[in-house]
Amino acid sequence: MDKEKRIRYIQARDQPEKTGKEDIMKFDPNLLQIVDSDYHRNGVGGTGFHVALVDDPNDGDAKLVIMFPGEGNTAVLSLNKLMEEDISFGSNSYRGDIYDAALRPELFDEDTDEEQE
User: Considering the domain boundaries, does residue 44 fall inside one?
Assistant: First the structure.
């Protein structure tokens, strides 16, 4: 093994093993700021939903959050990645459950939303 490969191997070996929880542990839901939001009735027969533009200082990106009735029914996409036409799973994917818990109390009032339908 040449010297350059050995150095890369040692650097990679010495990195702590990722468990998948690192990003969740760094995420602070209190930093999320709703920039704008609106209710969409989803035509005449669909289930209404809330859509919000959310500033997310956790990663310095704005998110498009789409929230349907029922806990956990939330989709989150990066606006920057959408502008690049990236809608791929794994690339433009975020934990909707985390955003749901942080934003549902501010966005979703089931009594009000039932009246809007």
Answer: yes
